[in-house]
Amino acid sequence: MRLWIRMALVMAVVAIIPLVLMGIRAIQISTEESVRSSREIVLRDADAFATFVDTWMADQAQAVAGLMQILPVEGQSKDLQEALQKSIYLAVPTVVTVVLVDEDGVPLVPPLFLTEPGALGSTTEGRGAGSEVRASELIERVPLTEALATRSHLASAVVGHPYLPPGGTSVSVPVGATGPFGEPLVLGAEVSLEVVEALLREQASATHSVALLTSAGEDVIGGQHELIDAQRLQPLLTTRSNISYALADGREVRGAVAPIPRLGWSVAVVEPAEVAERAALGIRTRTTWVLLAAVALALAFGAVLARTVSEPVARLREVALAVAEGEYGRRAPVYRGDEIGELAEAFNHMSVRLKENEDALVAQQGEIEAFNRDLQERVEARTRELRETQQRLVRSGQLAAVAEVGAGLAHELNNPLAAILGLTQVLRQSYRGTPEDKSLERIEGQAERCRQVVSAMLQLTAGEVDPVQAVVIDLRVILRDVLELVKGSFRQRGVTLQLQEPDAALLVRIHPIYGSRILAQIFSSVRAGLEEGAILRVSAGMVGREVAIDLDPDRPVAIGSARDDWMASGMALWVARHLLDQVGGRLEEPLAPQTRWRVLLPGA
């Protein structure tokens, strides 16, 4: 560092140390205050949402129970009981289905619901349609025991566990209401949370999430947002507090939780840490710029003072650089009586001595360079010889291992396959023209195919077949063969396999056995991670100059120990990737929340 710069820095440091200390303290205080304010704001938001949901749900429940206190229901005519259902249905706009059941859950009159959404201008405008299935689901979920246990001289209502009704698009809550007459009857109502859901979703965005969860961490509304981690939130859902946790992708999340004790639910409001701390970051940035400006001013003032000392040193530096470039004997024009003048005199003496020794150094340098070049050439030649020897040894070991495995496979597999083929052909002669002949023909065909697979595998491992130089074949043929091969295992697991066969030919340059082996390995690996009842859709087409085979399951494929054969599937995927790499293809696995697997092969 130059002398004048050091002097300027010293003067600047002495001037700005108090300002820096004050700035750092100001940043700390403002940051703490900003974070505290942000935590209070998000906690107030959670409280506000919790109060709204609690009040709204209490209003709906009391509205359902309100008409139960007019007159006793037990023993009344069916018409009067149906009129009571209709009155409550019309009085509470959020009710989708109403049932009147006894203490055993048996309906006293048919459930009341709309078969079609409410028409515009009618008293049921905007009301969702119900169904017999939804009514049956409501009867199952009405909290009968809790509602009957709260019977008193006043009408009361009990809110059940939220659920998504069959065919519904919004979460509903079962409400059980009893009157003040001590009757063993419960009025059940399916109350739609569409209003609450619309409010919460209106507040949600990519950087802000409002979710309604049960105390057990189950999603009621908004729990599927990428910022919500129900597993981490579950221990805190019964307390009013601020929260902080990290997502699986490493992002930090800040927020608050406010419980709704009467319902056993909680409201969670979360946002990324960078959003929550944006104000604090702005304060730190502005304060930092102020400090930098103060430092710049102090440096400028110090530089002016330091120039009077640094100019002689600068002239000495210029001469030193010239000497370094080979201008030996050059003198520095510095004439002073202080330490800088003594330094200039010593430098001039050194420059003269360097000129005297230059010729001797040049000669010695030439000799050393010649010796170094000769030594470098010898080292490089020896290194090349060692590398070539090592490559030959490794290749020899690989060829020996491949030859040994190939011989073992030929002996262990081809002999029994030949026996199977021979016996099958003999049996076909005996059963010619009978129904068993068809089965024997299929056995013979599959055995012959196994023999071709073994032969192709041995050729590949022995290096006799180059997959890149294989014949051009329509991928649809390979795809149909593979699907025919694996459909039995899919059917046994309970997974539906659907093929959308392309109209045009998809030409690839690959050995058929090689291609069948790649696709069979990948199909088997995907199947191992699907549950019973899943659907796997298979399609193929051109993507640029490549041929793509898409595997689209209707649900995510399990990974790791969740698979039925995860160790074998992992090896199968490794083999498939290895083979794809040899033919210039690749496998694209899905990233959550996507589920599509794609195999890409170079087009012919």
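(ticket continues) Second input and output from the same batch:
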Amino acid sequence: MDRETLVARWYEEGHYGTETMRDRLASGAKEYADHKLVVWSPYRPAATTLGELHARGVRLGGALTRLGIGVGDVVAFQMPNWLEAAAIYHACTELGAVVLPIIHIYGIPEVSYILEESGAKALVTPTEWGSIDYRDRHTDRDLARIFVGDDPPAGAISFESLEAGATDDYPRGEVAADDLHILTYTSGTTAYPKGVRHSHNTLLHETRQLNVATGARVGDVFLSPNPVGHMAGILSGLLNPYLYGEHIIMMDGWDPNAAVDLIVEHKVTRSGGAPFFLATLLDAVEVTDRDVSSMRFFGCGGAGVAPTLMERADAVGWLSHRSYGSTEHPSVTAGWQGDALEKRAYTDGRALPGVEISIRDESGAEVPQGEPGEVCSRGPDMFLGYTRDELNRAAFTDDGFYRSGDLGVLDADGFLTITDRIKDIIIRGGENISAREVEEVLMRHPKVGEAAVTSMPDERYGEKVCAFVVCVAYSPLSFEEMQAHFEAAGIAKQKWPERLETVTDFPRTLAGKVKKYQLREGLQA
């Protein structure tokens, strides 16, 4: 089934409409004008209201027109969670430009590639953030460079001077709901990032379906640790407040103790992000007597989630569940409010409204229920496709399902459990071993705080299992203790880790996901 046929069906079923993000931001800014937006930052803290921010963004759109930017032009920002990033997003949406968020710690090679492939006409960055100085970063592309902060380089545009030319008197071009709205690039491993294209309709459906599942309410206060260079940060920090009436607290860097302060001060009711955020936040909560009872929900996704994490959240009174998705298909499944703890802790939830899941074998045939296979999905929040056609040919099945590259199982109740990444399967002497399974056994050891399992090269078996662990304070795990733990768990011996590496932390993306390829590279160094 081709995409045109799928889109027609999604219109007929009411998943799509003619409203654009420009329309929704304008109506949300009016309806929720007094709702607060707070930026927690050691460098550039700020506070405003949704109405004030939208008005600022609309005027800023007029300033962008003076740089020659119009409907369909790409505007990139490589920004932390600062107010200026949100203002640029509103400006682009009002103007009809395509928004290109870039992770703010990407280096020159990644950014240069993204700017060139996307055809961006402008790039907004800080002058400095933390230890990063963006002023000495040059690209070969001829574009407008806009800097937020003091002492921009010669020939660049300061954000202040850009805003000095702001006006709301400028022509707005025509924008349709199926037009490209956001272009974002996945963080690559060995290859360059892939450009992922989303429309107004795909993102509006995404926010709608996930808010139904998680029980969002008008007036909720959402704490977002997710960077706006990531899809999760765009959704939680830039869209949901205007679409569903949330107050928003954005953090430009993760500090669990500061997060506790923010929960107490602002009576935060909801949050979400990678397991790393929830685990470290619970660590901070469990050693304080401060009142965090305002919080009722923390959604978890983006990496493997230990069942014990859901149990810990329940113990402090926070409903939490696992979810599954990607930049390409942001929310395939999620737990629901009424799901039992066992389902929320041990599965990745059920398909969200409009989403179809198909579990397939290597030949592309569907496998029987309960059998593992590649998770393929399609739904109204699925991306339009990659920027490069050759990637699209491999990404989709003939009937329009997105091939995730993840292995999973569907149970009789429709709950999906992700068992592994296909490329993360360890093949030891021809035997497939699930890294996820080994990690979950490790996480049940009382001395293990976090675990990541990868393959390591072996002349005899091809690959063996290597375990990387972050131990709880003052409790180192020995290799012998680990082996005894696996023996007691009754796990087949070929799955036992044959090397143990103890680390203080893992290399991570800004969304908190462990960079396993870096761990593997370290083994081969």
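Agent notes: The chain is about 30% helix and 25% strand. The chain has a mean pLDDT of 91. Closing as not reproducible unless the customer responds.
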